[in-house]
Every structure is written in structure tokens, then in C-alpha cells.
Amino acid sequence: MSLVYSAQRLERELGRWRSTGASPTVYRALADRIRLLLLDGRLPSGTRLPAERELATTLHVSRTTVTGAYATLRAAGYLTSVRGSGSVLSLQRTTPEPVHRDGVTAPTAAESLRWDLSQSAPPAYAGLAAAYREALEALPGYMPDAGLDLGGLPELRAAVARHFQDRGVPTAPDQVMITLGAQHGLRLVAEHLHLPGGRVLIEQPTYPHAVDTFRALKARLLAAPVDVNGTDVEAVVELLRARRPPLAYLMPDFQNPTGSSLTDEDRARIALAARSAGTVVIADETTAMLDLDRGPRTPLAAYGEQIVSIGSLSKTAWGGMRVGWIRGRRELLESIRLQRRSIDLGTPILEQLTAAVLLRDERTMVTARIEQLRAQRDALLAGLATRFPGWTLPPAPGGLSLWVGLGELSSSALTLAARAEAITLVPGPRFGLDGAFERFIRLPAVVPLPEIEPVLTALAAAARRVEDESPSRHRSAGASDTTVV
Ligand SMILES: Cc1ncc(COP(=O)(O)O)c(C=O)c1O
């Protein structure tokens, strides 16, 4: 069954679609934006678009514009007309992508997208295969049991507890639950704590799949601004005080996508305000260990029992392992454990054993990852500075993301143009609400060193393509007037 989008809902998703810059006509701009939303997952395949007349009225454009946009999408195979269901978006394209005006055909198949910069996730840690081998040797010792464990293996919970203790947060193994990664941990905690339709405080921009989670739970989102220099802590404290949300979701260390962190003082302020408001704060520490040159800070969990931490080995070891954790009060974990049975029946034993092997020498793994990311970040920043003097580059003291200001260039237009250069990007608005951050792009520092120059060359070609299509918009591109958060 198709998901039905009203014209109002589609308008919200479209954001500032007219100003993307790359499209020569209004109907093309509308078609391009809908295509982008489909490609980056904001409009799921199968979504039913509103009737042409209804959308034209809502967007204050002529009916011909919407007809033209739908016809463009239909010709490109992104829209099908289903009898009785109207126009339905589809990613199963049946016709080839039309040739661009400059004669370059955009890639049609996944394999022709050579560089995937859509995920800020690095390849596996070099020591991972050896850790798996060691775990495999130990596995038969666990086979006499059923192997279903909602809390996690005691030895891994103890290892995660040590991970917190080493960072200055006293933690017992029964304050830890092992999960299938941080995303799973987030969903488990949010589902447990979130009253349907309740408010959730988030940073903006933020990690998109957290927003997906809260939206799936029908949350009402309250957004506090964050940029590459830090979070607007006044806004966080004020929203906690005035709106008393049951839940807040923050990334205290190397926030995704901005890379900024809360100061120790800000952590104390936020924890105090959350306690007064009765708010549980989910501290997402997925990138917390990737400290490239900032220096240690006290984990948010040290500031009180209302902080629930989620973490993962996805960034330090490998996303494909799917091991993460929740650290929180025993009673909270116990009730999440009971609820978890309706979702899954525990984390695979081999992966848990592998995680325990890796955490035995966490320092070595983290150091290797930091050295790799630091070299890649430095090379990427240097290359960007040379090729794109009008862009605003972030300090990026940790984590994987560079949150780059594009000057006057549209992130959505760049993302579409980059596809024709074999690069997959995620445009800035995917990290915001209601179309914000059109002048930003997140570039993850996960490109291997030998690939950085070819990636930058391709990116420059994509940027040129956007600029060539609407030259007047881009001449004034400057660093100083680009920051919108
Ligand atoms: C901030 C943040 N939280 C959670 C996740 C999901 O992590 P995992 O792979 O452990 O589910 C990611 C992955 O990109 C992330 O960046």
C-alpha cells in the first residue's frame, strides 16, 4: 500500500526547493527536488504524491508547473501512474535517465556510483579479522546454551562497564545492556521512554536516523541550534525549562554532522536543567572515542542518573559487526529488557565475543582509528581549502564528519550534480528539519588517502556544473556570509 503525502506534508519536505540553483526552470527545480528526496530516503519509494491541482495550490505555482514536474519524473522512471492510486514514486526505474544538457548521462546503477560519501562510516579495523578468529575459537563453549540473551554476555557487559570506568564514570556490568548497535539502542530507549506524541528535544542539525526514530514514534520535535563551534546551550536550557520534554537526544562529543562538543561547564548546566525538568537525556556517544585533537572531557553520564548513554563499536571497529550498548539505571534497563522481546531476542554471540576481544585492548584499536582519520581529515581539509576557497571549512577536532559551508552553492543541486560524477552525497537538509541547511554539505573523512584527489576532482566538476547552470547566483560566494546556524 502506498504512503499518501498530502500537499502540505510534501511542501514541508520540499523546503526551499526553488532556490536550488541548478535547475533552469521552475518545473525542473520541483522535479529535481522530489527526485532528490526520493534518492536520499526522505520520500520513501511507494509514496503517493498529491494530485497536481492540490499541489499547485499549496505551492502557489501554476498547474502546468506541477504537470511538467510530474511528467519529468515519469519520463525518468521515478513516477508511475497507478490506476486508482494516482502518482506513486518509485526507485525501480524502468527507463534510462535522460541525458543532461551537457551531454553527460547521470549514473543509473548503484555500481556506477564510485565514491559513497553518504555514510560517515569507515571500513573495518585492521585487527577485526583476528578478533573474530579468537572469538570463533571460544564460541563452542557457549553452544550448550540456547544463546538468546537480551541483556548481553556478562564478559562483554563487564568490558563496556570498564570502558565507562576508564573514562571516569563508575559503572557496574548490570548498568549495561548490549544492543545491535547504537541505532538499535536509541530505538529501544526512545520507545520505552517516549510517550506517544510527546516532545523530544534534539539538536539541529542532527543525526538523521535519530529524527527518523522520533518521527516514527510520532514525537513533536523541539530543536536547539548547533554549529561547528558548539551547541546553543542557552536554547537547550530554555527549552528544557519552558517545554519540559520527557526526552532529549544530544551528541555531547563530536556531534554528527557538525563535529562540535559540549564543554564540561555546558554538560553540567544541561544535566541540571534536565533534572529540574524531569527530562531523560539520551547521550549518543557513537563518535565519542574519535578524539582527533580535542582532549578528554567528562562523559555526560557522570552528571546524573537521568542521563542514558548509547554507544557502539561501529565507528571504531566496524559497522558491519552491529554491536553497541546502553548504559543507564538498572531499573530502566530491566524494563527495556522486558519490552525488547517484542523487537528482537538479543545480540549474536559471536559478535559479542568479538567485541569483548576488541575492548580488551580498546586503546590500540582507537589509536589506530584516530591516526587513520586524522590523516584523512587533514588531507581532505587541505584539498578542499585549495579547490574551494569560497567554502567554509570546519575545525573538525573529532568524529568523522566535516560540516562544510558551501557559500552560495545549493547542497541539493550539488548532490544531484555529484551523482553524474559518480559520487553519492547527502545534502545538508537531510540533517535539519523543514529544509534547513541548504548551504551545507556533510563530507565524511572516510575517503582513503589515495582516493582523496580523484574525489575532489569529481566534486569540483560537480560544483562547476551547478555554477555553470546558474552563474549569477554563485559569483558572490564568500566564506563570511554563509553560516546560517
Ligand atoms: C551519531 C550516531 N548515532 C548512531 C549511529 C548508528 O550507529 P550504529 O551503527 O552503531 O547503529 C551513527 C552512525 O552513523 C551515528 O553517527
Automatic annotation (TrEMBL):
Transmembrane segments: none annotated. The keyword Translocase does not apply. Residues 24-92 form the HTH gntR-type domain. Keywords: DNA-binding, Pyridoxal phosphate, Transcription, Transcription regulation. SMART domains: HTH_GNTR (SM00345). InterPro entries: Aminotransferase_I/II_large, HTH_trans_reg/aminotransferase, PyrdxlP-dep_Trfase, PyrdxlP-dep_Trfase_major, PyrdxlP-dep_Trfase_small, Tscrpt_reg_HTH_GntR, WH-like_DNA-bd_sf, WH_DNA-bd_sf. CDD domains: AAT_like (cd00609), WHTH_GntR (cd07377). PANTHER family: HTH-TYPE TRANSCRIPTIONAL REGULATORY PROTEIN GABR. In the C-terminal section; belongs to the class-I pyridoxal-phosphate-dependent aminotransferase family. This is Transcriptional regulator. The lineage of its organism: Bacteria, Bacillati, Actinomycetota, Actinomycetes, Micrococcales.
